[in-house]
Amino acid sequence: MLVLVMINLLIIVHEIRFSFAILEPVDFLALQSIRKSLEDMPGSNFFSSWDFTSDPCNFAGVFCDGDRVVALNLGDPRAGAPGLSGRLDPAIGKLTNLAEFTVVPGRIMGKLPATLSELKKLRFLGISRNFISGEIPATLGELQGLRTLDLSYNQLTGSVPWAIGSLPALANVVLCHNHLSGSIPSFVSQTLTRLDLKHNNLSGSIPPGSLPSSLEYLSLSWNSFSGPVDLLLPQLNRLNFLDLSLNRFTGQIPSCVFSFPITNLQLERNLFSGPVQPFNEVAIPTVDLSHNMLYGQVSPLFSTVQNLYLNNNRFTGSVPTTLMDRLMAGNVQLLYLQHNFLTGVPINPMAAIPLSSSVCLQYNCMVPPVQTPCPIEAGTQKTRPTSQCMEWKG
């Protein structure tokens, strides 16, 4: 009988031991160091549950598997939460079983700890909308299982490490709104679907083959990228978002981009040149090709676009009749053609443009047949000087 009682007691002790596993001491000490280097901002009480006399696996943002921390989400994840201040302690590298590490928006400053490279099991790294400065550690290229890298809206400088491009499992790279410079690496991951580098100081050309065909979202706007894209973009036929605006891209716009399954094509404010010739009727609701050096006649295949920005280019000839007919029917909501070299618009001067539509025709090689409101930046001159119209041959 006594033996049976002892056996039952041992079973109970065994169950208690494994249902309330003691956290690995290395992880325990790492969490202590991380806590000491961070503070709740006024209005935040994220760390109120971080009482190290209790089980750290019950702390807010700490997730365990057995006696190891596998996910650490620092800060209240609710929208509008005040966030944290302080710095990221290098002890983060001691949490070697970590698969996910995120930090909510706040006022965390300083550099990214180089010890992040010790988190070999890390799949998700998201530290956005803080004040992280310095360079992206090239040693992040050692995280072979990393799928998401989000360091957006910080103050990072330097280049995008070439080792980042060699990561084989990347699916999302979001480095927008920093101060990164230099050229970007080639990305080898065939699972990369999102690449967001907008609002940096990046430059150089993007050779064909440097971006995988798996990409669905590509935003490079507000940089200084240059060179042609006529061989690059045809390889990216899965794109459902494309923004190359405010760069220095050159050459022709490949016809295939007008067939991409996207809702907003943003190629404005570059140095694109040549004629624009879609293969078929364009099904993209908004197309912005403004402020380039495009020339030739406006294609009637743009008549199916709802918002069409062709202003500040070098288009010549007459506006397609089908485009004006759809405008008058209210199907084209916005048509900006100002600051080109157009010579005709098939519209009755007495016709009333629908209230739901807007068209700007000023500063072309003609007197606008109808007077319509134009954006302020279009200026006040209605017609381009004759001397310019004689010089420009398209």
UniProtKB/TrEMBL annotation:
Secretion signal, residue range per the UniProt entry: 1-21
Keywords from the UniProt entry: Leucine-rich repeat, Membrane, Repeat, Signal
Keyword Repeat among UniProt keywords: yes
InterPro entries in alphabetical order: Leu-rich_rpt, LRR_dom_sf, LRR_N_plant-typ, RLP29
Chief location: membrane
Database matches in PANTHER family: LEUCINE-RICH REPEAT (LRR) FAMILY PROTEIN (PTHR48009:SF4)
Name this polypeptide is given: Leucine-rich repeat-containing N-terminal plant-type domain-containing protein
Species per Swiss-Prot/TrEMBL record: Lactuca saligna
